Amino acid sequence: MKRIDDAPLNAFHIRVAVYTGGGMFCDGYIIGSIGLALPLLTAEMRLSAVWEGLLAAAVLIGIFAGSVIFGPITDRIGRQKVLVADLILFVVASALQLFVTEPTMLLVLRLILGVAVGADYAIAPVLLSEFVPRRQRGGLLASIQMIWTVGLVSAFLVGLGLQAWLGADSWRWMLAGSAVPALITLMLRIGSPESPRWLISKGRQREARRILDKHFGPEYTVDDADTSTSPTRVSYRALFSRRYLGRTVFAGGFWFCQVFPYFAIATFLPTITEAFGIGDSAGELLYNLLLVCGAVVGLLIIDRIARRSFVIWSFAIVTAALLVLGFWPTAPLAVLLPTFLIIAFVIAAATNLETVYPSEIFPTEIRSAGTGLATGLSRTGAAISTFMLPTALDSLGIGPTMLILAAVAGIGIAISVPLAPETRGVFLAEAARGSAPQTSSPASSTSTHA
């Protein structure tokens, strides 16, 4: 029998990537839509800096709750059920933002949307990783993160168009617009199959066999090493056991340190560019363009260079660039703008690792729990950074604020050097159960091909 890890890439794999990626597009759109909407609703509702921070961070707070709660639930009841249910919540909560009349209503809806987004983070990349061939696994997992970036940038571009068309009241349509891609994705997900790896881990071999026969063929099976039925009760305790603690710390830690500066800058991009004297929309457009370019390049190189090298060197470059902005905030535009764009390009490229690493380094029975916990920790960082950024800018100024972001990126290096494993090209079961932190040079591109 052949492993599904070695199956040739086919139309079914692409379909799974599309409907899992559709959820990530919605995630990016929901998070990105608040950036242009916030100044407009701040003026209309006369919001304080605290309310600005709360509304900017609300989705991220909800993501923490959704990912931590639904990670183990997904490992317990299955991927497919939650995959459909969270999109229903997307559609309803997105549409209701049209009818908001005061900030508390919007805060509640953004928190609910965050819960749905968090659930999707714990499910979509996990489900995709459990279907795709090992040699294309990195690229396909990275593709849904790239789609997240496209969703983020699409929200910005749609927002610009709506603002030019509808004026001050356009913020409602910016926020509610996420209902459209959510509805399309929901229709694609209805009738999607359950993960055969999860079914076998629950002793449901016949159901798994039917799915394998239909989508892969009778000659394919799942690696026994990835389908242990011993953990009958899904618990976060396993993630903090001696066996998985290092992976848990790495998955949550590197993701936290990546999104801390990413979300702070992306959410308050107009405010930050104005503070640096790059106050026109051209700077914002260039930043968003470089986000997309970085995400595409990250997708192209994810299976060509070592994961470990990618994560360490991306942190090093972003840290260095943020230090330049922090220590020299009055630099000429010829220095500030390229440095700012380097951050956008590199950080967007490296975020492709966020859907790759957590889905690879935990076994089936705790894969969603591990991914959910890592997501929750990352969104804690994103929520802290977006909540504190307006206050930090007001009280400390732009230079010290950039130094705070640089310090967090530097912590990412400190976490990744001892803990980042190498998983490129490895069978999923072996990556999850046998990978160990590598102690070789960060620049090493050596990987294991089973």
From TrEMBL:
- Family matches, as InterPro entries: MFS_dom, MFS_sugar_transport-like, MFS_Sugar_Transporters, MFS_trans_sf, Sugar/inositol_transpt, Sugar_transporter_CS
- Its primary localisation, in coarse terms, equals membrane
Report membrane topology: Multi-pass membrane protein
Keyword Cytoplasm in the entry? The reply is: no
Q: Where in the cell is it found?
A: Cell membrane
Q: Does the keyword Acetylation apply?
A: no
Q: Which family does it belong to?
A: Belongs to the major facilitator superfamily. Sugar transporter (TC 2.A.1.1) family.
Q: What is this protein called?
A: Putative MFS transporter
